[in-house]
Backbone:
């Protein structure tokens, strides 16, 4: 396709999960050509997540797909997603504690790479799929963090660079995201959320619980396979 001045470009952080897939489809719906950035950082399910992110790029006919290995996050440790000595906990959806699945300062690392990718490709926005149920547990998903990172982007890029950090779901619940994604036709069968297993999903970790609850709340069956499907609906 011939480039024109009318084209809008956006980097989307594509984890392979349902939130980032919905963010990508939202960006495409808003008219952006999507540049998908996927990172593998030593998480238990990295192969399945990469497979899903790669499939998302194909489904969206993305302008570009970039996979970056960020093994330093696993080397640093401190998360049950990357440390074999730490167990992934069962879901505790009412807890206000930072869960063991928190990867220290991960989003700052990912957004730094996404900003570099955006600046190099003249993109106008960076999309991240974080939402309110994330920032109740993860400090780097709070609205104040994204506001602060926007200032980092503005300060740390070229004067002529103008990249907007978009976290469109930051005040949304997982249920809101599922509802919007169903409207947008997101292929959720090609997404993965489980923290423990690459197939089938366990159904009992935090990520599985919030995902299943969202689908149950909107009355749509989650199309991926689970070892267990507990009832989590509100």
Residues:
């Amino acid at each position: 396709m011939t480039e024109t001045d009318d084209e809008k470009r956006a980097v989307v952080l594509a984890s392979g999960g349902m939130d980032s897939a919905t963010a990508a489809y939202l960006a495409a719906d808003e008219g952006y050509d999507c540049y998908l950035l996927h990172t593998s950082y030593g998480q238990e399910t990295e192969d399945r997540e990469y497979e899903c992110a790669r499939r998302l790029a194909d489904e969206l006919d993305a302008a570009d797909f970039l996979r970056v290995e960020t093994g330093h996050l696993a080397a640093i440790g401190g998360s049950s997603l990357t440390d074999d000595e730490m167990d992934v906990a069962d879901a505790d959806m009412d807890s206000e504690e930072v869960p063991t699945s928190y990867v220290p300062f991960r989003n700052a690392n990912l957004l730094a790479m996404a900003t570099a990718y955006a600046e190099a490709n003249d993109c106008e926005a960076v999309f991240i799929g974080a939402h309110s149920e994330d920032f109740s547990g993860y400090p780097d998903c709070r609205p104040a963090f994204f506001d602060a990172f926007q200032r980092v982007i503005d300060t740390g890029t070229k004067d002529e660079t103008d990249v907007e950090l978009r976290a469109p779901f930051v005040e949304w619940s997982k249920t809101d995201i599922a509802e919007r994604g169903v409207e947008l036709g997101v292929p959720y069968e090609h997404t993965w959320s489980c923290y423990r297993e690459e197939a089938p999903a366990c159904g009992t970790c935090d990520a599985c619980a919030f995902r299943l609850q969202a689908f149950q709340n909107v009355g749509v069956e989650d199309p991926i396979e689970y070892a267990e499907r507990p009832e989590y609906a509100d």
Observations:
- The beta strands are 8-13, 32-40, 64-69, 125-127, 164-166.
- Residues 46-60 form the longest helix (15 residues).
- The two ends are 46 Å apart (CA to CA).
- The longest strand covers residues 32-40.
